[in-house]
Amino acid sequence: NLQVLLRRRPKGEPVPEDFEIVETPAPEPQEGEVLVRHQYLSLDPYMRGRMSEAKSYAKPVELGTVMEGRTAGVVVASKAPGFAPGDSVAGGYGWQRFSCVKPAGLIKVDPKEAPLSANLGVLGMPGLTAWVGLEDIGQPKAGETVVVSAASGAVGQVVGQIAKIRGCKVIGIAGGPRKCQYVTEELGFDACIDHRGDLKAQLDQHCPEGIDVYWENVGGEVQAAIFPRLRDFARMVMCGVIAQYNVVEGADSFGGPPGPNLGAVVRKRLRIQGFIVSDTGWPRYPQFRKDMLGWMADGRMTWREDVAEGLRKAPEAFIGLLKGANFGKLVVKID
Ligand code: NDP
């Protein structure tokens, strides 16, 4: 087995030395387990949290153990009912080539419905995140203005396309002209703003009447520019703040530079709500998958992946993700 372990906890931005790559014997499935050979590993921003000891909604990865992550692959041996060699599955586990898992952690997928790797993106956890967050919190209505940050990424690309399906005006925010062009031309958003430019002026230009739904993936300066432009009764879906994941000090405090004046939450009757996809998402997975496959089939849902070749490239690719080096859902193709 080839595995990527967490060697030490990063201080600020992770570096390659925080990881260790090891070769170990392939695991043997125990009674009730399935042995999966992973073909794709999903790399996601939440993994930065798992590398840290700070209190969070999930336990940190222990030092010296395999990095956590969802995978898609093929069953090679099974001692569990319902799974046979050759089955395609999503939800094997960890930054490694093989894993032994209980069937409860696996979703059997049909490779004819979509490429295997799509089960880690548009049809996987990031797609489910977009679907749940819009349904429960964003609740976009036809004609409303929806702004999505990290718009070309795994979650953002799905959020914006669902909002278009719902009849909204959708404005993306992304880093650089290539990503912005993709967001308007391929994903069909009404406009896309480069956050490296004058964010405030561009927001005023594209959202002259303000913003009804803001999908927060980024935080920091982007959030500061959005907040005063929220309309009465706007919803702010707090999905993530990737710009702040490598910040060491004051992660949970009111300290630091002045933030938005939260008095506006009252005055404008704003709804600002955070959520974690795993709280309520997975029991609704069958409905999500049905919606998504329908939209994919009728051409209203497209997606883009960024594929790193080889498990040994995973640390470098993950470090890049936290700086916007990825273009689309980041996955590793396991050699
Ligand atoms: P993406 O595929 O969007 O990749 C991350 C993107 O974030 C980068 O490509 C970059 O896009 C942007 N970015 C990175 N660093 C910065 C920065 N310093 N300032 C501004 N933008 C930055 O990732 P995901 O779609 O997987 O995740 C998006 C967000 O959703 C994250 O915050 C993540 O933690 C959150 N999330 C939350 C879940 C939940 O349950 N609440 C579940 C899944 C994801 P660009 O170049 O365009 O700036």
Q: Helix coverage percent of residues? A: 25-40%
> What is the chains' assembly state?
single chain
Overall pLDDT score = 95
Gross morphology is: globular
Radius of gyration: 20 Å
Strand content: 15-25%
CATH superfamily of the largest domain: NAD(P)-binding Rossmann-like Domain
The beta-strand count equals 15
Query: What bound compounds does this protein have?
Result: NADPH dihydro-nicotinamide-adenine-dinucleotide phosphate
Q: Helical region count?
A: 10
What CATH calls the topology of the largest domain is Rossmann fold
Order of helices and strands: EEEHEEEEHEHEHEHEHEHEHHEHE
Largest sheet: 7 strands, mixed
Alpha-carbon distance between the two ends: 11 Å
Set down the secondary structure blueprint.
Elements: E1 2-6, E2 19-23, E3 34-42, H1 46-50, E4 70-78, E5 88-93, E6 98-101, E7 107-108, H2 125-138, E8 145-148, H3 154-165, E9 169-174, H4 177-185, E10 191-194, H5 199-206, E11 211-216, H6 220-226, E12 230-238, H7 263-267, E13 271-274, H8 277-280, H9 285-297, E14 305-309, H10 314-321, E15 329-333
Parallel strand pairs: 8-9, 8-11, 9-10, 11-12, 12-13, 14-15
Antiparallel strand pairs: 1-2, 3-4, 3-6, 3-15, 4-5, 5-7
Bound molecules: NADPH dihydro-nicotinamide-adenine-dinucleotide phosphate.
